[in-house]
Amino acid sequence: MNTKKEVTIYDIAKALNISAATVSRGLKDHPAIKKETKKKIVEAAQQMGYQHNIFASSLRKRKTNTIGVVVPHLNSYFMSSVIAGIEKVANQEGYNLLISQSLESVKKELANVTTMYNSRVDGLLVSLAGDTQNVDHFDFLFKKEIPLIFFDRVFEDPNCISIIINNFQAGYDATKHLIEQGCRRIVHIGGNLTSNVYADRHEGYKKALKDHQITYDPELVIIDIRGGQLGIKAAQQILNMELLPDGIFTANDTSAVACMSELKRAGIRIPQDVAIVGFNDDPIAKLIEPFLTTVHYPGYEMGELAASTLINRLNKLPVNNLNTIVLRHEVIVRESSLKKIIY
Q1: Which of 28, 115, 218, 286 has the fewest CB atoms lying closer than 10 Å?
Q2: What does the pLDDT average to over 315-341?
Q3: Contact status, residue 67 vs residue 95, Cβ threshold 8 Å
């Protein structure tokens, strides 16, 4: 089999009749090399098809300038915002990203992390899968002193930093807003309670009810709802209740919008009959009529902070001593929850 020989700096040096050291410095834009010489070296490298051997270079430096990112899904506005924030900081600091999704599976999460470890990433940013209940499968990273930072879906561990919002308080604030609008029978549509984000939002919902002397009714809690189709199923379950709720707090905007649309098709008026609050502040919240009240989750800022914290650790710079960094959330009030407005 005929395989084409890889072009090296020695081939470029021979073609230009200069030393290999000069070629190497020229390709690295070394200030000691004249501009004219650099230009000749770069042009020759392009014409000859030279490719820099990043792997060999990383072995010498013991650093690849690559950060691994593992997320449950890539198909959400929130996660794409986080990754955009990570990418901005990583690019500014000269790092590349290796991104994968666990698809809510701890087994795939481990496979992804192992692949990234074998690819010699310098550090990892991870949002945990839905069925991850401990972080034992990250122990080999801790032993190798590879920095790991959790964000959004986290697990408290002394070996790494977690970056979150106060999901308990956010769930409390969203439910309290509905109560202040006069709602007393409030449905909560939530996600898998093994995940800290959904568990904490659910607990915030319960505490808000308790603080306002409203009895918690498990029949009004619809758990493990994610995505549009399941939002529709939640609406159908609500429509089959003997007594309809007067408020709904959902743990994500996609489910909220799907649920709202289905209720409207059934003749339910929003917010006159049922007030609705979502979570995440996705663009979809302003594509539905009426506009959706939601909790703003600062995904882009979370990505920036996660990346900068990790890179500071990699560069041995001072980092926040807190084991958990909490970003601010905000309830964005729109028409879908304002029952007290006179229509």
Answers
A1: 218
A2: 87
A3: yes
Sign of the CA dihedral with 113 first, then 118, 121, and 123 last: positive
How confident is residue 59, by pLDDT bands cut at 50, 70 and 90?
A: very low
Tokens of 315: 């560069």
Sorting pLDDT into bands at 50, 70 and 90, what band is 1?
Answer: very low
Residues 174 and 287 in one domain: yes
Report how many domains make up the chain.
3
Q: What distance in Å separates the CA atoms of residue 311 and residue 339, rounded to the nearest whole number? A: 47
b/e per residue 8-45 (b: at least 16 CB within 10 A): ebebbbebbebeeebbbbbbeeeeebeeeebebbeebb
Whether the ω angle into residue 290 lies within 30 degrees of 0, i.e. cis, is yes
**How would you classify the pairing of strands 247-250 and 275-277?**
parallel
In the chain, what percentage of residues exceed pLDDT 90?
Answer: 63
Q: Is the dihedral of CA 281, 285, 286, 291 positive or negative?
A: negative
In this structure, is residue 225 part of a structural domain? yes
Return the exposure string of 323-334: e unless at least 16 CB atoms fall within 10 Å of the residue's CB, then b: eebeeebebbeb
174/289 same-domain check:
yes
In a domain, 15, yes or no: yes
Q: What is the pLDDT of residue 333?
A: 97
